[in-house]
Design goal:
The complex is a heterodimer of chains A (419) and B (911). Chain A has helices at residues 6-25, 29-36, 43-54, 58-64, 66-69, 72-87, 90-110, 117-140, 147-164, 178-192, 198-207, 218-234, 238-251, 257-273, 280-285, 292-300, 303-312, 314-320, 323-327, 329-348, 358-367, 374-386; strands spanning 355-357, 392-395, 400-403. Chain A is mostly helical. Among the domains of chain A are: 6-216, no CATH class; 331-403, Arc Repressor Mutant, subunit A. The relative contact order of chain A is 0.05. Chain B is an all-alpha fold and 911 residues long. Chain B has a three-stranded antiparallel sheet with strand order 3-5-4. Chain B has a two-stranded antiparallel sheet with strand order 1-2. The two termini of chain B are 19 Å apart. The chains are: A mainly alpha (419), B mainly alpha (911). Chain B: Residues 188-200 have a biased composition (Pro residues).
């Protein structure tokens, strides 16, 4: 690093302070936002950080003039945070940033309009990112990571400020910022694995009269739908998950391929569960090849393929939370298999096609190298009938599945398998 | 039960608790009733008027208890002991009182509760504690009467305490009343060693006697007074008895009025000199009442009970101002047999002597202990004040010993004499090696050792017969004893011991004062009054004890003695700072006792309030991480409400033994659960985190699983996961499997399941148990009942136990599924086979048929429609059933959702 003179450092710091004061005075939210984005590693902030490390007494500069000192409670901790960040001390950087953020929120609360929302977004984002990095640092030092949790409660506070701002006269100008904060909260909760904490936020977003969902920025709506869709996947509420994820998909900017892929990662299993198979092209376009074999298994009624596909990507599916959903596809695979048997029988002898002997099914499974005895297959058949994947009945005495002559294998057509 | 009969008596509140014992032997059975109710006010009144009426209320309460206890053999004693027991309980479970209903102080109720507290707080109804074995008391006296009498003379004060109810009663009371009983009763008492628990219940009678005894104490005047007392008790008994059944008693009893309230008594027993005065007053009242009566014993008993209570009281000391208020109407329900006239006379004679100290009465005490007592007193022949102090001290020691169960086991001959504190005037000389041992029999009895939570502490020791019953009880009661032991230890420390004794005795009073759990409140009020009397001081202590009984309980172990000594010293130093404390302590007793007892930070903070104003929040919890010194292997679980007392905490090596003991124990789950919880607590407070910790939690988790106690299991499991994640070795795979099963089968939380599954290491997935759990998961999610029940049969470890809890649901789902999928019928034999019914048959060693029958029953219970086909085979009519199947309400459903916690169920299983 080039040598930095005291004069230069001094200049950089006062320059920042001037820009900060100007942004607030002119209510320039975008500029203000840029001044807060620690983790953006923008050249101006990096150079400021260097300057701060040279010029240790920045607080004196802040106090020097009335123009700066009114923001002292925000800027002073922010400078410390920036310094620590530059030095790689993320835990302290987070701590100082949270302090600065708190002070900023106090100011923000007093501003009538929502001009500073952009800055607030940046702060909400930064606090989450800094907390994540701080936790990583803590964990590597063998300490318990707790900063992200702290960031979660801080953001809840921010959410309260935004929602609270609307209480007085119907709708406040700041309410539209609530969804962004909500999405940051979702990210934190999903990361922490405390997804049940999402519920309270969702409830206030969906029920509070001050919020009109359509009013929120589109990007926040997409993010929100994505996360709530994922929650529905966890609950195995497929129609709701389908609706939310589809909303996210259709509103997502087409240029954001990564985002589309993330949405598809959950939407595809959901669609599979309600009997809708994706085109191969889609899977390839968005690099979702892990679903290839699963889709193939569904088409062919190949139980073995399904199992091996699940096995192969087990870790991935478990982590993303779709494993249990995919596993349930097994019944559909059985259905497909039986249907194939039925079709073959029909080709041979249409008059007896609707009677499928249990032995035949066992034999078919054997070809798939799946050993199941009569009792197990009988149980599977019973479940298929019970879940309405197959119409007909099972005659225990003769060990024969008697299929309905009319639409023996009803399609799901967007409805989930009965539970 | 007898108790109910007593109820007829309808005595006013005064006698809260009556125990009954129904001894199998009969005679005694009727009497056990003691009353515990010591409402302060009524004292005098009792004697004549109400004994009966007052009882009535209690009776009901007891009845309940009786039932509960019955299962436990230990209850036999309850009658007399009940009183004591009750007190002890009070400390622990204020709640219990409430249940008891009208009786503020009903000792019986309390006792049961006490143990309940440990693990079964819910069951207030348990009155077990009360029933400790009483038999011991009966024994005591045979040989020694003469000597005792002498002793009694010396200690008039004790008298009151010692009131011994009928033989049976005495037995119950054993601890407290030993001396008296011994002299008078032994002969008369046939001692029903076997304590038939069931019999007890019916017999409950409130015993007024205890109250009377105190009055006796006065000593010289006493003899007359004693007579009265005895007499009085008798009447009371009668009433009680009448109901129970034994006519004989009734007669005798009738003549005699019940009496006394013991507020004073309590204090007196406690021992300290100050207390005595009060006692005397009481006695006076009584005196008027009646001439000689057999009832003596009963009274003694009641008193005895009181002493036990004191333990509790000790803690409470701060809060409790005045036990005096409490009047104990101890009705001694003498057992018919006891009533025998001859006995009575002896009693009377004895009584004067005994009056001094019920505890000290020879009959109750082992010879060696008597010798010890004599020695102790011998030292202070010339100094009345010291002697008084000595008496108090001795009482404490004995009470503690009883509580500990060491009364008979301790080597009194070699026991160091305590020193009476200087202020008191001393006791040093008095205590010599105990030479007299009239009670040797008891000493060896296992009973003492067994600590039953159910039983009142002191009582247990006394009883020989009850032993078997008591043993069971003993498990639970263990901590009680410990506490006592602790006291005894303190006794060693002269100062400390005094303090303790005071509280213990007081406890009864406390109980009386507080009908319910609000002992604390009572205490507080009591405090205000205290200033005047020494007795009041003791009361305060009692109240405190009640408060902190929990803490105290912890501190009972012998090992604690040393600790206590040192602690008491420490406190002594601190006395200057805390005026409160000082004032609590009567002349004799140093403040040390209070402190020693209280392990709780709270207490400390309170005591410091005036000077230091230390808040609980300011306590350095790290500094409170204790290193245990307790050597007792058995210990009741008591939720800490204060900082742990090292003397009640077991060090690691002892905990290991305790764990082994639990593992090898044949006792039921509730006992084991309680023990394990106490082990876990000790581990936690000492911050032990190693393989032992893991073992304890694993053991507990397995036991909990076996009985389907998911709540406890979950606690253990979550701890285990933390421990495993810290790298401590254990049965990781086994518990990973359990965890999986638990999530799948019982929580049904997809997120948790995913988390658990994603955390499985590749090695874990190769583990049989984990594989099995995963397979079960798959079967459950797909609803594959065939696979589920196959896995059920092949489950490794305790996976079966967890699956057990899901079997019903799975079967129901399967039945619904089959009724919808099958047409026209399904053979029952097939269903039985598929749904694991034949499994049960295998277990029973019966034929396949029984599985079939079971399946039939099950299907019928769930609304299935069954038909018989032309070959005579039973079939499930699928179509008809598809609309009629339903999930029946579980028969054993209970309001609180956990049938395993049902009292009756538990009792039934205990036996």
């Amino acid at each position: 690093m080039a040598y930095l003179s005291m004069g230069e450092s001094h200049r950089r710091i006062t320059d920042y302070l001037n820009r900060f004061a100007d942004a607030i005075n002119y209510q320039d939210g975008d500029s203000l936002a840029r001044l807060f984005s620690v983790s953006s590693d923008s050249p101006s902030l990096l150079s400021l950080a260097d300057a701060l490390n040279v010029f240790q007494d920045a607080n004196r500069l802040i106090k020097q003039s009335e123009k700066f000192s009114q923001f002292g409670e925000v800027v002073a901790p922010f400078f410390r945070s920036l310094q620590c960040y530059r030095l790689g001390n993320l835990v302290d950087a987070y701590g100082a940033f949270e302090k600065a953020s708190n002070a900023f929120i106090q100011e923000f609360r007093n501003w009538e309009s929502g001009w500073a929302l952009e800055a607030l977004y940046v702060i909400a984002y930064e606090i989450r990112v800094l907390a994540e990095r701080a936790d990583r640092e803590l964990a590597s030092n063998g300490k318990s990571p707790e900063k992200l949790k702290g960031a979660g409660s801080f953001l809840m506070k921010v959410f309260g400020v935004l929602a609270g701002s609307c209480d007085l006269q119907g709708k406040g100008p700041k309410r539209v910022g609530a969804l962004y904060v909500t999405c940051q909260l979702f990210k934190i909760y999903f990361k922490l694995g405390t997804v049940n904490l999402c519920r309270s936020v969702i409830r206030s977003i969906e029920t509070a009269r001050i919020f009109d969902f359509e009013e929120f920025p589109i990007r926040d709506k997409v993010t929100y739908m994505y996360y709530t869709g994922r929650l529905e996947v966890l609950n195995e509420n497929f129609p709701a998950a389908d609706q939310k994820l589809s909303y996210a998909l259709t509103h997502c900017c087409l240029s954001k391929e990564a985002n589309i892929r993330m949405i598809l990662k959950y939407l595809i299993p959901v669609k599979l569960s309600i009997g809708i198979l994706p085109k191969k092209q889609l899977l390839e376009n968005y690099d979702l090849v892990e679903y290839n074999n699963i889709v193939e298994a569904l088409k062919r009624g190949d139980l073995r393929l399904l199992r091996s596909a699940l096995q192969e990507n087990e870790d991935q599916f478990l982590r993303s939370g779709v494993y249990l959903v995919l596993e349930k596809l097994e019944l559909q695979v059985y259905q497909r298999l039986l249907k194939k048997i039925y079709i073959i029988q029909k080709q041979k002898d249409p008059s007896k096609a609707h009677q499928v002997k249990l032995e035949v099914i066992v034999k078919a499974l054997k070809w798939l190298e799946i050993e199941m005895d009569l009792d197990e297959v009988e149980c599977i058949v019973a479940i298929l009938i019970y879940k309405n994947l197959m119409k007909g009945y099972f005659a225990h005495k003769s060990k024969v599945v008697v299929l309905s002559k009319q639409d023996p294998f009803p399609k799901l057509n967007g409805k989930p398998v009965a539970s | 039960s007898s108790s109910s009969s007593t109820g007829t008596a309808s005595a006013p509140q005064d006698y809260n608790s009556y125990t009954s014992y129904s001894n199998t032997t009969d005679p005694y059975s009727a009497y056990s009733g003691y009353y515990n109710g010591y409402q302060q006010q009524t004292n005098n009144q009792y004697s004549q008027q109400q004994p009966n009426p007052s009882y009535s209320q209690p009776v009901e309460a007891y009845q309940n208890t009786g039932a509960a206890y019955q299962p436990n053999s230990s209850f036999q004693n309850t009658g007399s002991y009940a009183g004591t027991a009750s007190y002890s309980t009070t400390y622990y479970n204020p709640g219990n009182y409430q249940t008891s209903g009208g009786y503020p102080s009903s000792g019986y109720n309390n006792q049961p509760t006490a143990w309940n507290n440990g693990s079964y707080a819910n069951y207030t109804s348990y009155q077990y504690p009360n029933y400790t074995s009483d038999t011991s008391s009966a024994y005591s006296s045979v040989s020694a009467p003469a000597t005792y009498q002498q002793q009694y003379k010396q200690w008039p004060e004790y008298y009151s305490q010692t009131e011994v109810t009928c033989a049976p009663g005495t037995e119950h009371l054993s601890a407290a009343s030993n001396s008296n009983h011994g002299s008078s009763l032994p002969t008369s008492l046939p001692p029903p060693p076997p304590l038939p628990p069931p019999s007890l219940t019916p017999t409950w009678r409130p015993e007024t006697s205890s109250s009377e005894l105190p009055s006796m104490q006065p000593g010289g005047a006493a003899s007359g007074a004693h007579d009265n007392y005895w007499n009085q008790p008798a009447p009371s008994f009668q009433t009680h008895l009448a109901a129970p059944t034994q006519p004989i008693y009734q007669n005798s009893l009738d003549s005699k009025t019940s009496y006394e309230n013991f507020q004073e008594l309590k204090t007196a027993p406690q021992g300290l000199n100050s207390q005595y005065p009060v006692v005397h007053q009481v006695s006076q009242n009584y005196q008027s009442t009646l001439p000689t009566v057999p009832s003596f014993d009963a009274r003694r008993v009641s008193k005895l009970q009181i002493p036990t209570n004191p333990r509790i009281a000790s803690n409470a000391a701060l809060g409790i101002a005045k036990t005096e208020k409490d009047s104990y109407a101890a009705n001694s329900a003498p057992r018919p047999a006891y009533i025998s006239v001859s006995v009575q006379k002896p009693n009377d004679k004895m009584s004067p002597n005994n009056a001094a100290d019920p505890m000290l009465k020879p009959t109750m005490l082992p010879k060696s202990l008597r010798g010890y007592v004599e020695r102790a007193f011998g030292r202070y022949k010339d100094d009345d004040a010291k002697r008084a102090a000595c008496e108090a001290y001795m009482k404490d020691i004995i009470t503690e010993a009883r509580a500990d169960g060491t009364l008979y086991t301790r080597d009194w001959d070699s026991e160091p004499l305590f020193t009476v504190p200087d202020s008191l005037s001393i006791s040093k000389a008095n205590i010599q090696t105990p030479t007299h041992a009239s009670i040797p029999n008891y000493n060896k009895s296992p009973v003492r050792r067994s600590k039953s939570r159910w039983e009142p502490l002191a009582e247990e020791k006394m009883l020989e017969k009850p032993v078997s019953a008591s043993n069971e009880i003993g498990k639970y009661g263990s901590w009680d004893r410990k506490t006592f032991s602790g006291y005894s230890a303190t006794k060693d420390n002269s100062l400390s011991s005094f303090r303790f004794s005071g509280p213990q005795q007081r406890t009864p009073s406390k109980s009386a004062q507080r009908p319910m759990k609000r002992q604390r409140i009572v205490n507080g009020t009591g405090l205000t009054n205290n200033d005047d009397d020494a007795s009041s001081d003791s009361d305060k202590e009692q109240s405190l004890t009640a408060y902190y009984s929990g803490a105290m309980a912890l501190a009972n172990n012998p090992e604690e003695k040393k600790r206590r000594e040192s602690r008491s010293k420490r406190f002594d130093r601190g006395q200057g700072h805390r005026p409160d404390i000082n004032y609590f302590k009567p002349k004799n007793a140093g403040p040390a006792n209070l402190y020693t007892r209280r392990a709780s930070a709270l207490m400390l903070s309170k005591s410091f309030d005036d000077s230091a104003n230390q808040a609980v929040e300011d306590i350095d919890w790290d500094a409170l991480t204790v290193k245990g010194t307790c050597q007792e292997i058995e210990k009741r679980f008591l939720r800490l409400t204060s900082a742990p007392d090292p003397s009640t905490v077991r060090p690691e090596d002892v905990l290991e033994k305790a764990l082994l003991m639990v593992q090898n124990s044949q006792k039921n789950y509730l006992y084991k659960c309680d023990q394990l919880k106490s082990i876990r607590q000790d581990i936690t407070v000492q911050r032990i985190r190693n393989q032992l910790t893991v073992k304890v939690y694993e053991t507990h988790a397995r036991l909990a699983m076996e009985v389907g106690d998911l709540a406890e299991y979950n606690q253990c499991q979550s701890q285990l996961q933390i421990l495993y994640s810290e790298g401590i070795e254990g049965c990781l795979m086994e518990f990973a499997a359990y965890n999986l099963l638990c999530v799948i089968l019982h929580s049904n939380n997809k997120k948790d399941l995913l988390t658990s599954m994603s955390r499985l290491t590749p090695e874990a997935k190769e583990d049989d148990a984990v594989k099995h759990a995963l397979a079960v998961r798959a079967a459950v999610t797909s609803g594959n009942y065939v696979t589920f029940f196959r896995l059920y049969k092949s489950a490794p470890n305790l996976n079966t136990c967890l699956m057990d809890l899901y079997v019903e649901k799975m079967r129901y789902k399967a039945a619904v599924c089959m009724s919808k999928s099958y047409r026209p019928t399904v053979p029952i034999s097939y269903i039985a086979q598929i749904l694991g019914f034949s499994n049960a048959a295998d277990e029973n060693g019966e034929t396949e048929l029984s599985g079939l029958d079971e399946c039939l029953e099950w299907l019928k219970a769930h609304g299935a429609s069954l038909i018989t086909d032309n070959t005579g085979e039973m079939q499930l009519d699928a179509k008809a059933s598809s609309s009629t199947l339903y999930m029946p309400e579980p028969e054993d459903a209970v309001a609180h959702g956990d049938s395993s916690l049902a009292v009756n169920d538990f009792l039934a299983r205990t036996t």
